[in-house]
Amino acid sequence: MNLHLQDPLDPNAPFLQEKILETCAGATCGGGAFAFVTKSGVDLLLNDLAFKAFTTEGNFDLVVGVDEVTNPLALTSLRQLAGEIDTLQIRVFYHEQPNTTFHPKFCWFRHKKTAVLITGSGNLTGRAMRGNWEAFTITEFDEKDATALEDRWAAWTHAHAERLRPLDDPAVIARAEENQRRARRLGPRLPEPLQEPQPPESPAADENIPRPPLAAEGQVAALVAEIPRAGNRWNQANFDLNTFRHFFGAQPGASHRIVLQHVNDVGELGTMESRPSVSVASHNYRFELEAASGLQYPRRGHPIGVFLQIGRRTFRYRLLLPRWPGYSAMRDFLATRYTGRANQMRRVVATAADVYQAWPGSPLWREPLQIED
């Protein structure tokens, strides 16, 4: 058994999400139970290409709780996935036992002659997978104990068959809706979203313009970068090694996952994109940007990506094309700050505060710069 401590301030600490994805590779089947689920958690784990690759070969039996936190949006995300993946079974543990909460957080994967059990404090939520301080253990079983683990899971699910409801069960949906209403009554745990700043009417009014929220441990790092054409697949954005390693926190040859979340033109947050860091022999280092999918590369000028680090290897970003709002501001930002060679893509590492000064009306400031729950 190995104990792992997820630490948002330790650059070498593991993420629960990454460890689960490593463990599922090559497995023949698996299962797990998580008390609380959010859409961000579903996107980070179940929507990841590594997990989907596992489900092409093996079955996964997931049980989720609905006593707290889990809301209708999470159930919708789970229903959509279950409809897409035949080998993914998802049920909800529904009970009416007073003063008792369904609260487990574990998953297991069976390999040919072994099994691996991951047990810890983290739920199937964005912050638990990538942002919080969490602790979890990874235990490997030999073939005999692996079979016993699988049998124990089957016996437990059989014993609670009446409590394991489908995702569209009316009682399940009603409780998820109550969770949502309760969360709204209690109010947000994070600061209120920023309002779009208006041009100051006087120097004194300038002090009241909302500023981008900064992390407790220092300023949020920012990258403003031109995206090269890279053939017909420019949505796989290429970066130089220095940016790949020192801004995104990836290492060539390592199995890191970079999480990206696009912000649209009205400040709405997109899906959390869990991407493997890709390095190839041609010394290209790249990540796929969902926001670029289906867009034509401009005939003149280069697309610009604005990336804000909201957590370790976790980023918000806004993709800009020529003539889009904000493009000229970021083009001028690069023109005044870039100091590299003229024949290379311009990339500038700064802070969120620097970007804000150049582009105060950006939709990037609408939501707090923190990992979504």
Secondary structure blueprint with pairings:
Blueprint lengths: L1 E5 L9 H9 L4 E6 L4 H7 L3 H7 L3 E7 L6 H13 L3 E6 L11 E6 L4 E6 L5 H6 L2 E8 L1 H17 L4 E2 L4 H17 L34 E6 L9 E4 L1 H7 L9 E7 L5 E8 L1 E2 L5 E4 L15 E8 L2 E7 L6 H11 L9 E5 H7 L15
Parallel strand pairs: 2-3, 3-4, 11-16
Antiparallel strand pairs: 1-7, 2-5, 4-8, 5-6, 6-7, 9-15, 9-17, 10-14, 11-12, 13-14, 15-16
Any overview of this molecule?
With 373 residues, this protein is an alpha+beta fold. It has two domains: 2-186, Endonuclease, Chain A; 205-365, At1g16640 B3 domain (Beta Barrel), CATH 2.40.330.30. Helix content is 27%, strand content 26%. It is built from ten helices and 17 strands. The strands form three sheets. It has an eight-stranded mixed sheet with strand order 1-7-6-5-2-3-4-8, sandwiched between helices. Strands 12-11-16-15-9-17 form a six-stranded mixed sheet. Strand 15 and strand 16 (314-320) form a beta hairpin. 39% of the residues are buried.
Task: Compose a concise summary of this entry.
By secondary structure, this protein is of the alpha+beta class.
CATH topology of the largest domain: Endonuclease, Chain A
**Main sheet properties:** 8 strands, mixed
CATH architecture of the largest domain: 2-Layer Sandwich
How big is the Rg?
Answer: 22 Å
According to CATH, the homologous superfamily of the largest domain is Endonuclease Chain A
